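In response to the reviewer comment on reproducibility (Comment 2.3), we provide here a single inverse folding case reported in full, input and output, so that an independent group could reproduce the run without further information from us. The structure tokens appear first.
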């Protein structure tokens, strides 16, 4: 009989780690498990959101050639994250049912298809449809990559690997904002997007070659005391509030720097780059720390509390503009990193057969926050200015910290 482990050793029975004591041989790890698989997972996270990053980076070219309004361009974010939030619960169950290898390959092929459609888009309808298709890739990303980590890496390495693969989102933003934008200047924006589509298709082939076949489906066992349905819902709520604040900062930080602080365009864009680099370092570092026994439960609330300070620094930058730089670093180090720590907590505590579904529900909350946060922030800034807008972000982060407090309980099932 397969034994269910409650702590960082929790794995999907029969699929991700039934040991010899259970009479079932351990599933073979992916060939070259380690650096190669980690790079693959990081790449999958980057491609899962590449379409949104590219639209943001190439926005001026799209507006000019396709005749899009700024409103329609903004709707691409809502379409992408809205579709991801709605599809995440279904995607999580799908990963648990058919296996991470098939879903990871499908994720990369969907990303390639979405990018190819964007490159061929004659107008707004096809563009929005392509971004919505990419939302399914986003929905599959965390469940599929988390299940690969459970299957291929020992418990003591999962925190570090999770942080590295979560940093892939920021890597995707960097690639879209620099190399592909430079390429677009030479071959046109469609050529740059099609190049990204081809790279995603190649990554799908790489995943099919590197990852072992998915095993037969094992029925999900009962939830362990480590992660009840209520605790998953709490993590999803935490992620939604966190996503509202992060998305508002991502969307408006450069505009804030240019419009209110008088920064030149290059310096204003550099604020986003600083935030991204800090996010990569924070996700890797904090996820590694969360991988140690007993750490993951306390970190979400602490990181959200640190994010409150970052938002207050942004508000104070209206008086002392130089504070915008440490504020950008703090948002990346605390707020952006907290999402990766949430995924570490799910991996440590998910019951057998439920890692995909639990990951998807937490991701759905985060995506919902990304869809809702910027419109609220934008409306408040239009009515009252950036000061109240940054205070709203601080309130969102503070609410996330409050929601996360019960997670610190040793018996998270009682939360």
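Designed residues, in position order:
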């Amino acid at each position: 009989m397969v034994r269910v482990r409650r702590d960082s050793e929790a794995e999907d029975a029969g699929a991700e780690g039934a040991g010899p004591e259970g009479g079932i041989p351990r599933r073979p790890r992916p060939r070259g498990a380690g650096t190669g698989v980690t790079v693959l997972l990081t790449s999958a996270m980057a491609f899962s959101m590449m379409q949104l990053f590219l639209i943001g980076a190439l926005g001026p070219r799209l507006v000019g050639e396709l005749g899009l309004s700024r409103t329609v361009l903004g709707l691409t974010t809502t379409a992408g994250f809205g579709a991801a939030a709605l599809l995440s619960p279904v995607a999580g169950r799908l990963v648990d049912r058919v296996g991470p290898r098939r879903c990871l390959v499908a994720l990369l092929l969907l990303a390639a298809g979405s990018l190819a459609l964007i490159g061929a888009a004659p107008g707004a309808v096809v563009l929005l449809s392509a971004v919505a298709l990419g939302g399914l890739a986003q929905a599959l990303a965390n469940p599929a990559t988390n299940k690969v980590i459970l299957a291929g890496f020992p418990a003591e390495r999962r925190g570090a690997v999770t942080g590295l693969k979560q940093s892939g989102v920021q890597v995707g933003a960097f690639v879209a904002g620099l190399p592909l934008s430079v390429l677009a200047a030479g071959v046109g924006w469609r050529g740059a997007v099609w190049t990204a589509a081809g790279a995603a298709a190649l990554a799908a082939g790489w995943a099919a070659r590197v990852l072992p076949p998915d095993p037969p489906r094992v029925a999900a066992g009962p939830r362990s005391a480590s992660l009840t349905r209520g605790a998953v819902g709490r993590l999803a709520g935490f992620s939604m509030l966190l996503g509202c604040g992060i998305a508002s900062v991502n969307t408006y930080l450069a505009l804030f720097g240019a419009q209110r602080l008088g920064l030149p365009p290059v310096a204003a864009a550099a604020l986003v780059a600083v935030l991204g680099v800090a996010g990569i370092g924070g996700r890797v570092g904090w996820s590694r720390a969360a991988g140690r026994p007993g750490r993951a439960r306390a970190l979400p609330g602490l990181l959200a509390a640190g994010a409150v300070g970052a938002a207050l620094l942004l508000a104070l930058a209206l008086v002392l503009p130089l504070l915008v730089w440490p504020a950008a670093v703090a948002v990346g180090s605390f707020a952006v990193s907290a999402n990766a720590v949430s995924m570490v907590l799910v991996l440590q505590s998910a019951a057998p057969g439920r890692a995909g579904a639990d990951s998807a529900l937490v991701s759905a909350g985060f995506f919902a926050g990304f869809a809702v946060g910027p419109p609220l922030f934008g409306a408040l800034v239009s009515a009252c200015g950036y000061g109240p807008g940054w205070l709203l972000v601080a309130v969102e982060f503070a609410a996330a910290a409050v929601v996360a407090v019960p997670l610190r309980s040793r018996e998270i099932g009682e939360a």
